[in-house]
Amino acid sequence: MNDNAKEQAYLYDLYIVPAWREVFDRLVDKEIELPKDGKFLDAMCGTGGYALDLSLRAGAKVEVIGIDDSEERLALARGKADVKKPNRASFRLGSLKKLDFPTGEFDLVIGDLSLLAATTPVAELEDVLAELVRVAKKGATVVVKLTTHGSFGEFFSVYWESLFDLDLVAHSPEIERMISERPTISDAETLALEAGLRKARSVFHIERLEFKDAAEFFASPLVDLFLRKDWFAFWPDAQIRKQVQDQLAVIIDRERQNSSFDVSVKATLIIGQK
């Protein structure tokens, strides 16, 4: 295994799971009733904690399959399975964009798009939603986890200000694009209906992420490993990227006035039946 990827998997399990994934998992637990038998899919299962919990709660009549695109995260998931000894749970490498399962395979499909949708345009989510619906049986419940429009608004407000301070307003359309391309709840419901779900509905929870200062914000695994790359990808060279981030840090620390820098995330579920 790649040592850097292995380290990132451990950081994901240590920081991303409790601060991010579990916010969405609690929403799922609150909103859906588990089928008493059949096959469940946890797509983008990460390090497997929730898939294993589903298996242990659902019992021996249910088979849970978790897929993820990181072999390093899956190694941690399999290690947890060795300890927890779930009834019928397994993990395999896979992609959300092309699920390696027959059509109509699962009685419950849960797709975690929460980090994908944080940086991916609405148009690119269509294929992913279509795949999640495709592998569900007729009548099965499909649950999609994602962030919706309004998430990270505090950060983008500061981002705008940094462009004005550095006389880089010509790049402001890129900020507008990142804000506007995050799906609204209405967008997500429409996409789910178009993908073949019936009675699609949404629930959301506003989660506030708290950082003591700019340094902690940019060093957090959520930002450092998952969000920073897309937020800064459009800058032409590393020097400008550093100037922008440095100015962002100045503004964050100036405006928080000895309090924390809080960022709000609209954690959203889209739920429907095939």
Number of domains: 1
Total count of helical runs of at least 4 residues:
10
Q: List the uncertain runs.
A: none
Largest sheet: number of strands, sense, barrel closure? 7 strands, mixed
**Roughly how many Å apart are the termini?**
38 Å
Strand content: 15-25%
CATH topology name:
Rossmann fold
Coarse shape: globular
Percent of residues in helices comes to 40-55%
CATH class: Alpha Beta
What class would the helix/strand composition place it in? alpha/beta
Strands of the widest sheet, in order across it, are: 3-2-1-4-5-7-6
What does this protein structure show overall?
There is one protein chain. With 274 residues, this protein is of the alpha/beta class. It has a single domain (3-273), classed as Vaccinia Virus protein VP39 (Rossmann fold, 3-Layer(aba) Sandwich). The protein is 49% helix and 23% strand. The protein is built from ten helices and seven strands. It has helices at residues 3-31, 49-58, 71-84, 122-134, 153-165, 172-181, 185-194, 214-219, 221-232, 238-255; strands at residues 38-43, 62-68, 89-93, 106-112, 136-147, 198-211, 261-273. Strands 3-2-1-4-5-7-6 form a seven-stranded mixed beta sheet, with helices on both faces. α5 packs across α10 (238-255). The longest helix is centred in the N-terminal third of the chain and has 29 residues, at 3-31. The chain is globular, with a radius of gyration of 19 Å. The model has no long low-confidence stretch (mean pLDDT 93).
